[in-house]
Design brief:
Largest sheet of chain B: 3 strands, antiparallel
CATH topology of chain B: Cytochrome-c3 Hydrogenase, chain B
Number of helices of chain A: 11
Number of domains of chain A: 1
Strand order of the largest sheet of chain B: 1-2-3
Distance between the termini of chain B: 19 Å
Strand order of the largest sheet of chain A: 1-2
Number of helices of chain B: 17
Largest sheet of chain A: 2 strands, antiparallel
Largest interface: A-B, 28 and 31 residues
Number of domains of chain B: 1
Radius of gyration of chain B: 22 Å
Oligomer: heterodimer
Order of helices and strands of chain A: HHHEEHHHHHHHH
Helix content of chain B: 40-55%
Number of strands of chain A: 2
CATH architecture of chain B: Orthogonal Bundle
Structural class of chain A: mainly alpha
Order of helices and strands of chain B: EEEHHHHHEEHHHHHHHHEEEHHHH
Strand content of chain B: 5-15%
Strand content of chain A: under 5%
Distance between the termini of chain A: 45 Å
Number of strands of chain B: 8
Radius of gyration of chain A: 21 Å
């Protein structure tokens, strides 16, 4: 087989993968809103969406249509260009990170081995971190360009919060990197496979710090101050309406998926899990395990929302800098000592 | 003219923020104007009146019996307490003795009102601080109590069940049984909510040491009710100036010395438990007898006697078409509403309509303390403080 047709095949497969993953992710985020509403509703002893389709299953579609047909209001004196740009930045970045996430081993197709991943970047983890940390721009710009006081507060709070927690988030992952010695997400999972043990058992502290910081990073309860509804009305997206508002929401949910994916890959063995049955099942079971683990994280997110009150802004910053960051540093120190001693 | 704050010269970088009247946590239509240095409140000023209804003026155009329906709508979260306050004031004016059974049922129902009102407070206070589920749990419990109100009065919220001289109707059959069931389950339901909050570290951080009001300040600002008792002052009209037979019930007046949001939270929770105790006592010791005073010129006759007695028919006609004529004079009666000291001041000129009726609304007086509580604190604390004094705007604007 000559190289040009090889390249064409590779491109074709990649395009198909991009389309499929984008479709799956969009659907998943849409149904995540449904899941959230349902789970929180049941926690609160009510029914949640029930009218649109059986058990409200068509609710995400109805919501999407509603967003499309709502009037798109731009506040007077808003910085129009940036006001338009902000939701697009949020949306694009949220979906970009998923490109390097592997969600299974690989499968053969006409003699080609095709991995369950759009692209396996050597510095996959760095890419994810870079992309997610850019997300703060969309929130800061949205808050600023709305030319309104509540969004401004939301934007400022959010910038400070995300930058503070970004530090702990990154540092929490360093422990894993020191053990596995690779930045490739696929490599990290393969390391866990070789050693027959998930990283959570080696890095429990790292995981806890990561997960806490990730909740703050995605602006979820109990760290949902940027949009703390009862204080800041809607936070940075107070002035947004119609589909631009929806884009912020989709981005938030997509970010939840991303951080859950990273947690699964780094600490919970990614797609590793018991395999059985015929070969086709052995190919697809890892994908199932991966999705299942991600689902568990997402469920936990929603569960938190149904349970906890909200931190205050200064307490949140104090917690990030005075608790999470030292713990993350200490974790690195201990991990480093252990790694050095064992080598 | 809307209230505003002017920027202080030399401090132009400070932000003037209008909070409300459309804001998720100003409990209705309260508007605050805050001067902010970063997120810290430097000064604040209130803007009330968005729910002005002119109730006090309307009183002057209604007969005493008709006025009861207005009182429901002032503090719409505790209609029966308002009914009671007004009825007691008019009864004082008429020098009317209410039969014990009616008194007992009044106590029972106002204590249930206190629980229902505190449940709404707990739910909204919790959701202001971000604990969303508590809100829905509280409304579930409250709904049970509202069903009881519906059984006795036909209405969930605008009950108007108390009448001058007694009650509108006998409670229906099976009501006490249902009440008993609810009273049995309520303590565990309150515990459930407490489990989610009282020892929750986030909740404690958000409420402890926030919005502190000392006992002296509390008295100087004429705070009353749970907000006063949260500052360590043991003052409860039910104990200090008993009305409607409260002196015959055993209950404690919970207080906390700290004076912060957390203290007010604990006081209200303890109060709900005390109210359950009172309800139980009232249920067990419910006396037999009539539910209306023997005062034919004031109290409507029952249907049966109207068919047999000409006097009853005449009184009925007089009361319905004209009302009754209380003696000339003025009267002031306070009760302990869920929010604090609720007072009715009525001036009578001998006509069937009040010459003037002024309401000492606890929310109105309590709101004064907010500026003191939030001075130098963060926006998030403003929300916690508003929740902790439990204001109802219908009562403030009247």
């Amino acid at each position: 087989m000559d190289t040009s047709s090889d390249t064409a095949f590779f491109l074709g497969v990649t395009v198909v993968k991009v389309v499929v993953i984008l479709w799956v992710l969009l659907t998943a985020t849409a149904y995540l809103t449904w899941l959230e509403r349902k789970v929180v509703a049941h926690i609160q002893s009510r029914w949640g969406p029930y009218r649109v389709g059986p058990h409200g299953l068509l609710q995400p579609l109805a919501d999407g249509l509603k967003f499309l047909f709502k009037e798109d209001i731009v506040p007077a004196d808003a910085d129009r260009v940036i006001y338009w740009l902000a939701p697009f930045i949020a949306f694009t970045l949220a979906f970009l990170a998923i490109a390097v996430i592997p969600f299974g081993g690989s499968f053969s197709f006409h003699g080609h081995v095709i991995p369950f991943q759009i692209t396996d970047l050597d510095v996959g983890l760095l890419f994810v971190l870079a992309v997610t940390s850019l997300g703060v721009y969309s929130i800061a710009l949205a808050g600023w360009s709305s030319n309104s006081k509540y969004p401004l507060f939301g934007g400022l709070r959010s910038s400070a919060q995300m930058i503070s927690y970004e530090l702990s988030l990154g540092l929490a992952l360093i422990g894993v990197l020191m053990i596995t010695g690779t930045l490739s997400l696929r490599g990290i999972v393969e390391y866990q496979q070789q050693h027959g043990m998930w990283n959570i058992f080696k890095q429990p502290v790292g995981f806890l710090v990561y997960f806490t910081a990730a909740i703050a990073e995605t602006n979820r309860v109990p760290f949902d101050l940027p949009e703390g509804e009862t204080e800041l009305v809607g936070g940075y997206h107070t002035e947004y309406s119609s589909f631009k508002f929806a884009m912020f929401f989709i981005a938030e949910y997509a970010n939840m998926v991303t951080v859950s994916c990273v947690a699964t890959l780094l600490f919970f063995g990614g797609w590793l899990g018991p395999l059985f049955g015929p070969p086709w099942l052995r190919t697809w079971l890892p994908v199932f395990w991966f999705c299942f683990k991600v689902f568990c994280f997402l469920f936990f997110y929603i569960w938190l929302r149904g349970t906890l009150p909200r931190f205050r802004y200064d307490q949140l910053m104090a917690f990030g800098w005075k608790v999470l960051l030292p713990v993350a540093l200490l974790n690195i120190l201990v991990t480093g000592a252990v790694v050095a001693a064992s080598s | 003219m809307a209230v505003t704050l002017e920027k202080v010269p030399g401090q132009e970088e400070r932000l003037i923020l209008s909070m409300g009247p459309q804001h998720p946590s100003t409990h209705g239509v309260l508007r605050l104007v805050l001067e902010l240095d970063g997120e810290t409140v430097v000064r604040s000023v209130y803007d009330i009146g968005y729910l002005h209804t002119g109730f006090e003026k309307s009183f002057e155009d209604k007969t005493y019996s008709q006025c009861i329906t207005l009182t429901d709508r002032m503090d719409y979260l505790s209609p029966l307490s308002n009914n009671l306050g007004f009825c007691l004031a008019v009864e004082k004016l008429l020098n009317l003795e209410v039969p014990p059974k009616a008194q007992w049922i009044r106590v029972l129902l106002t204590e249930l009102t206190r629980i229902a009102s505190h449940l709404v407070w707990l739910g909204t206070h919790a959701i202001d601080i971000g604990a969303m589920s508590v809100f829905l749990y509280c409304f579930r419990e409250r709904e049970e109590i509202l069903r009881l109100f519906e059984m006795v009065s036909g209405q969930r919220m605008m009950t108007s069940y108390f009448r001058i001289g007694g009650l509108a109707l006998e409670p229906p059959l099976g009501w006490l049984k249902r009440l008993g069931k609810i009273v049995e389950t309520l303590p565990s339901r309150i515990d459930e909510n407490e489990d989610l909050l009282t020892r929750n570290p986030i909740w404690m951080r958000r409420t402890q040491g926030v919005g502190v009001i000392s006992a002296e300040d509390a008295i100087a600002l004429s705070l009353s009710g749970p907000s006063l008792r949260g500052s360590g002052v043991s003052w409860d009209v039910r104990k200090n100036e008993p009305y409607s037979g409260y002196d015959k019930f055993q209950f404690n007046v919970p207080t906390r010395p700290e004076g912060d949001v957390y203290a007010r939270y604990l006081v209200r929770l303890a109060e709900m438990r005390e109210s359950i105790k009172i309800v139980k006592q009232a249920m067990e010791g419910l006396p037999e007898g009539p539910i209306r005073a023997n005062a034919p010129h004031v109290v409507m006759p029952d249907r049966e006697s109207m068919k047999t007695s000409i006097e009853a028919l005449i009184y009925h006609f007089k009361i319905v078409t004209e009302g009754f004529h209380p003696p000339v004079g003025e009267v002031y009666q306070t009760i302990e509403s869920p929010r604090g000291e609720l007072g009715f001041y009525i001036v009578s000129d001998g006509s069937p309509k009040p010459y003037r009726c002024h309401v000492r609304a606890p929310s109105f007086a309590n709101l004064q303390s907010l500026a003191k509580m939030i001075e130098g604190r963060l926006i998030a604390d403003v929300v916690a403080c508003i929740g902790s004094i439990d204001v109802v705007l219908g009562e403030i604007d009247r």
